[in-house]
């Protein structure tokens, strides 16, 4: 681990395990073998020395017929938002990755690796793109007005014009919990408000989306609200 927000590792790849996405950026630099990579339907080939950035929230899949190894950096650093899919200084990135693959057991090297990779990757003078602001109070009010309807993380993400994985990352940064837990907390807060106003349990459960009064009671008891 290269810090609270970054994880650096040397990984082996083989047969495909299915597409997925994640709420952080992922940088891959080929060390040995060839990795076939598909990101949002776009194909890329990662041979030794090649480098690719998989942006946060983009669905991707990997496969390597003969096996491959890559240096991988998982990072939530927002400075990567402004970086391109391939590095500005590919030779520098490749040389740095080769060194880091040999120095995986050296804490000092891996501690500085994320910053060095970022510096070699981005073009000089690249400014960080402004992040779309999220008004969490407005979003909470919107959620609480619709709790009698099916409201999930996908609907929340659409509301703020982000992918579900990007919303999950932003929610954890701002609120300390994932988007699903935040959504559950809004449901509980609204339920507690209605109970304090004297509404019967069965009506509160209906208005806040719980499947039964007993499910609501159990959730309130568990939360301590």
From TrEMBL:
- Which UniProt keywords are present, listed alphabetically? DNA-binding, Transcription, Transcription regulation
Stored PROSITE patterns: HTH_ARAC_FAMILY_2
Pfam families in the cross-refs: Cupin_2, HTH_18
Q: Supply the InterPro entries for this chain.
A: AraC_XylS_family_regulators, Cupin_2, HTH_AraC, RmlC-like_jellyroll, RmlC_Cupin_sf
Q: Does the entry feature the keyword Amino-acid biosynthesis, yes or no?
A: no
Q: Which residues form the HTH araC/xylS-type domain?
A: 137-225
UniProt name for this protein: Helix-turn-helix domain-containing protein
Q: Which organism is it from?
A: Ramlibacter pallidus
């Amino acid at each position: 681990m290269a810090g609270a927000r970054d994880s650096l590792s040397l990984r082996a790849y083989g047969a495909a395990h299915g597409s997925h996405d994640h709420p952080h950026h992922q940088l891959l630099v080929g060390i040995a073998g060839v990795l076939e990579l598909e990101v949002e339907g776009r194909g890329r080939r990662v041979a030794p020395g090649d480098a690719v950035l998989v942006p946060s929230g983009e669905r991707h899949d990997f496969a390597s017929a003969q096996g491959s190894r890559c240096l991988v950096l998982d990072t939530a650093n927002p400075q990567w938002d402004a970086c391109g899919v391939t590095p500005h200084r590919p030779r520098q990135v490749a040389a740095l990755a080769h060194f880091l693959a040999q120095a995986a057991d050296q804490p000092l090297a891996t501690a500085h690796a994320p910053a060095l990779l970022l510096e070699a990757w981005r073009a000089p003078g690249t400014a960080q793109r402004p992040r779309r602001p999220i008004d969490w109070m407005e979003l909470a009010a919107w959620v609480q007005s619709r709790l009698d309807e099916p409201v999930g993380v996908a609907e929340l993400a659409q509301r703020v014009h982000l992918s579900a994985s990007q919303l999950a990352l932003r929610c954890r940064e701002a609120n300390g919990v994932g988007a699903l837990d935040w959504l559950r907390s809004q449901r509980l807060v609204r339920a507690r408000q209605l109970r304090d106003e004297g509404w019967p349990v069965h009506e509160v459960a209906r208005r806040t989306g719980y499947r039964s009064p007993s499910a609501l009671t159990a959730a309130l008891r568990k939360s301590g609200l």
